[in-house]
Amino acid sequence: MQPKIKISASILAANAVRLEDEIKKVEKAGVDLIHIDVMDGHFVPNITMGTFIVEGVKRIAKVPLDIHLMIEYPERYIAAFAEVAGKNDFITFHIEATKKPKEVISLIKNAGLKAGISLNPNTSTDSVENFLDIVDMVLVMSVNPGFAGQKFISDVLPKVARLRSISPDEMDIEIDGGITTETISQAVQQGANVIVAASAIFKTDNPDNAIKTLRQIAEQTPRKKYILSKK
Ligand code: DX5
Ligand code: ZN
């Protein structure tokens, strides 16, 4: 069975002083996840949100959180994020940011959350292939992480296809960066099923319509068929 299409709204492009309204608006339009971009100014050249914001969002959001850690030494911070998150929430870390990926995955899973592992546009899928059996999601970055509003890097699409071909059927493959009504179908066609969008939702005049259109395009896109490896 093909995994369900899920739309994850990244609040990086939301109006920060009206976060509650912004979250309610996208939930009403049917988003599946709220994507929170945590940046430390070291792993990426930008500083954004920490546990304080995650805790606040958790009090408002009805859908699960999709916490995207773009921070060095994620192993040092999992406990703090897990404490303010909940059972169905994802915590995703970057393979480039730690020497202890197994430990990070265990920390997330032992806290009862879902674990995701992410790779930058220039990172090969080899770096995450050993972990596909123990994570719930792989996040393929389609921009260099740090900012919303960048252009989609289509060179990452073969990595999506490769990961889909070697992953358990039910595993979520997420794509993040530069998603628009044009690029979404390319990602879905190659096997991505969790679609992050910030600008394409929050920087439009009609976020409700934007979400529905993105979902409709994704659900209507034929996905490549693979002989999936049974594990
Ligand atoms: C970039 C972040 C993305 C970002 C996407 O580092 O990880 O989640 O918010 O923004 P858009 O959809 O505008 O490319
Ligand atoms: Zn992100």
Automatic annotation (TrEMBL):
Any GO BP annotation: pentose-phosphate shunt
One MF annotation (Gene Ontology) recorded for this entry: metal ion binding
Residue numbers binding substrate: 10, 68, 146-149, 176-178, 198-199
Annotated catalytic residues: 37 (proton acceptor), 176 (proton donor)
Cofactor note: Binds 1 divalent metal cation per subunit.
Catalyzed reaction equations: D-ribulose 5-phosphate = D-xylulose 5-phosphate
CDD domains from the UniProt entry: RPE (cd00429)
Family membership noted in the UniProt record: Belongs to the ribulose-phosphate 3-epimerase family.
Stated name of the protein: Ribulose-phosphate 3-epimerase
